[in-house]
UniProtKB/TrEMBL annotation, chain A:
<protein>
    <submittedName>
        <fullName>Iron-sulfur cluster assembly scaffold protein for SUF system, SufE2</fullName>
    </submittedName>
</protein>
<dbReference type="InterPro" id="IPR002871">
    <property type="entry name" value="NIF_FeS_clus_asmbl_NifU_N"/>
</dbReference>
<dbReference type="GO" id="GO:0016226">
    <property type="term" value="P:iron-sulfur cluster assembly"/>
</dbReference>
<dbReference type="GO" id="GO:0051536">
    <property type="term" value="F:iron-sulfur cluster binding"/>
</dbReference>
<dbReference type="Pfam" id="PF01592">
    <property type="entry name" value="NifU_N"/>
</dbReference>
<feature type="domain" description="NIF system FeS cluster assembly NifU N-terminal">
    <location>
        <begin position="9"/>
        <end position="127"/>
    </location>
</feature>
<dbReference type="GO" id="GO:0005506">
    <property type="term" value="F:iron ion binding"/>
</dbReference>
């Protein structure tokens, strides 16, 4: 894809973002970025027996950060990726997918959504692990 | 009702031009170069003012290796490529209330390119007025720009300058958000390399978030309104030697522009090391 085509795809996602909105019953609400510099997003994650049951995002900021967040959520949900597969996603490969020529030096903006999504998944996994490991202790107590 | 720039009481109204003025001078490409400088790096690609060129603060104005700005040779080359000569009037505009436009202007000033102005209201005002934008990237004959001398001393403060300033209780303005100023926010989650190990502010610095200097349409507030903020609230006085800082020195370039040109403070420096340097420095004094 040429740089102009990459920009066209980004703009399409920016103007018509996928999975944008608040999930009221989210298990994890994970903020990322800064509204002051670049962009910020909030990832909403619902876990379903250890798998991703729902995802959405809200955010504000530059075209790259917002469009790339829409793109990563679309990829994860369309491909039905597991939480471990999300954690294993490679940042450089994702920048290639977004379009390296369009992203230029703003790779951090392009990976904001992915890194925040990974943080949300890790938090879900930690919380679940903690809940599971603390349950027997409560019963014993 | 919208005030003309001349009616807003600025010390140096000649540092600003209106959207009307720019619209009337679009074709004067021999004497004027319109430069768009944005935070959102793709905005220029999706539409810009006719005959404007793009200068990106990361790719064009920063040294790729050392934390510094480009050197005089590269500045001269950049000017030549953009068709800018030493006498060319450079008109800056951009997104986010001209945040990056004033940053680019500040960097130009390091190299002594004095013939610089900002389009009041920036990109958002131009768009809101329904003015024409284009995707056509102009091409201008390159110009011979003599390699300038870079003089950082007048408008740029380094950490040792701030330390000396602190010793004599010189006035400082922290232009970050209240959360950053109080130390509540250290850095962007997941990007600790762009943050600081300690939160808070330089002792004695007043907190005036940079965007308070602009109105909803992106244009600058009047001199009286600005005085109320910077002098009435933050306690600055005409004649003060002021240092402004933020996280990496870009938001504070906006405040530098306001103090220097709109309120006429002669001695204002931008500490571009800002919180990413101070908040990581061993034994640097911090207040919360």
């Amino acid at each position: 894809m040429s740089r102009q085509q990459q920009i066209a795809v980004l703009l399409q996602h920016y103007q018509d973002p996928r999975y944008q909105g608040i999930l009221e019953d989210a298990d994890v609400v994970m903020p990322g970025g800064s509204p002051e510099c670049g962009g910020s997003v909030v990832i909403y994650l619902i876990g379903e027996e250890g798998r991703i049951g729902g995802l959405s995002f809200t955010g504000q900021g530059d075209i790259i950060s917002q469009a790339a967040t829409s793109m990563i959520l679309e990829q994860v949900l369309d491909e039905g990726l597991s939480m471990d597969e999300v954690i294993a996603l490679d940042y450089e490969a994702f920048v290639d997918r977004v379009g390296r020529e369009a992203v230029g030096s703003r790779t951090r903006n392009a990976t904001l959504g992915l890194s925040t999504l990974k943080s949300a998944v890790r938090k879900y996994q930690r919380d679940t692990l903690y809940a599971n490991s603390s349950e027997p202790a409560r019963k014993a107590g | 009702m919208e005030q003309d720039i001349e009616q807003k009481g600025y010390a140096h109204p000649e540092a600003l031009v209106s959207t009307d003025w720019v619209a009337e001078h679009l074709s004067d490409t021999e004497n004027i170069r319109i430069v768009e400088s944005d935070e959102d790096v793709l905005l220029y690609d999706i539409g810009h003012i006719q005959n404007s060129v793009k200068i990106d603060w990361v790719e064009d104005l920063n040294d790729p290796l050392v934390r510094d700005y480009l050197d005089p040779e590269h500045f001269a080359r950049l000017m030549g490529e953009k068709g800018i000569g030493p006498e060319t009037t450079v008109v800056f505009y951009g997104d986010k209330n001209n945040w990056w436009a004033t940053y680019a202007l500040w960097v130009f000033q390091l190299f002594g390119h004095e013939n610089v102005v900002v389009m009041d209201g920036g990109r958002v005002k131009w768009e809101q007025e329904g003015r024409e934008m284009t995707q056509e990237v102009p091409s201008f004959p390159s110009k011979d720009y003599p390699v300038p001398t870079r003089d950082d001393a007048q408008i740029r403060a380094f950490k040792e300058d701030v330390e000396k300033h602190l010793e004599k209780h010189g006035p400082m303005v922290d232009v970050r958000s209240p959360g950053e100023y109080s130390g509540e926010l250290l850095h962007m989650p997941d990007y600790p390399q762009e943050g600081a190990l300690r939160g808070g502010h330089i002792p004695g610095a007043a907190n005036v978030p940079w965007a308070r200097a602009v109105k909803e349409d992106g244009s600058f507030k009047s001199a009286d309104e600005l005085k109320e903020i910077y002098e009435g609230e933050a306690g600055l006085n005409q004649g003060d030697d002021v240092i402004a800082y933020c996280r990496i020195g870009e938001r504070s370039s906006h405040t530098w522009f306001v103090l220097k040109y709109l309120l006429g403070y002669d001695k204002v420096r931008n500490y571009d090391g800002s919180w990413t340097e101070w908040g990581n420095a061993v034994r640097a004094p911090i207040e919360r």
